[in-house]
Amino acid sequence: MNCGSFAEMSQIQHHIPEHVLAAYASGNLPFEFSLVVAAHVSMCLECRASLEAHQAIGGQLLESIPDMGISDGLKSDVMALLDAPEKAAPVYSRSGIYPGPIMEALKGAQPKWKALGGGVRQSILSHEPTGSVRLLHIPPGMAVPDHGHNGLELTLVLQGSFSDEAGSFGPGDVEVADDDVEHTPIAGDGLPCICLAATDAPLRFRSFLPRMLQPLFRI
Amino acid sequence: AVDISAETAWMIAVRDDRCRESFGALFDHFAPRLKGFVMRSGTSAEHAEEIVQDVMLTVWRKASYFDPHRAQVSAWIYQIARNRHIDILRKEKRPIPEALKEEPDAEPDAGQILALEQETQELKLAISRLNDDQRTLIEKAYLGELSHQEIQKQTGLPLGTVKSRIRLGLERLRHELRELR
Ligand SMILES: [Zn+2]
Ligand SMILES: [Zn+2]
To answer: A11-63: what CATH class?
Structure first.
């Protein structure tokens, strides 16, 4: 999408791809990527509008579903519950550079950083056999080891910047890398680069040592 | 000419006046469809009704978040149903974006609401013009299970056509941005 007014307002250059937004809207995206989408949409009105367009398509299809008929008592049950007290779920709001959905994943606390070597730190938000999502803290000028991917990787910049073969990424930008991408992101000057990175498969590091360390650091 | 749809009017009455009759009308319209929606992914009829109950209660409780300038009722309820269904199926809390809440004293902009209705009519038309294969695909994507990879392989067809119909949300957001500056 090309919209001048947003360019003035927001510096975001790299957005969530359409198929990922569609999968998110329709509930077909795994947790780790959903967190990146929810965090980016919290920062990006352009993707929020696209997401709402996908929801409109879903809404139209919902309208077209044939009437299934419902049990007799269901409506009166619901009407009777309208005044029942509700147990309100906590709402996590933005804290500094962390949008609400990330604060929720952190359960309202600040990240607990663990050193990864070379000044790089990580805070794992979720780690399942099917995928993982973590915060990374990379000092200015520092490289994340050269690696390839077995699946999809989405990286959202929250502070500072990084650049690699695919371009340069600042706050709010999302880098999309998949199977065939091998890249070496290097943090830009200025503030340390803090980003949210999600993968659906372990990363493959090229050099021998990091690969050995992979299980240790759960990368 | 397009009028504000009955659904939108009901939802505004629920939001602003906590109107039970209007909520009942929304229930009659959406509950049977929501049941069909939930059952598509293999949920039993009985369990589906529990989810319908949950979704409709959320519609009542979260009504203050409904913004007729940005969303049709069907789109708003679709999104609530998707969230609830996934939370229950996967036993996890699905991450959702921070809510944008309208200024409490914001006057409804009838022109904007009507323009969205118009746009939705166009969207409906665009969907009805899809051929059978495309329609099956888009239903699979939005009502069922298609991974992002599978959706990516298919984006050529319906997504582009259909999505180009909905830009008003974007226009509205641009408008809000100007006010923020
Ligand atoms: Zn975006
Ligand atoms: Zn990578």
So the answer is: mainly alpha
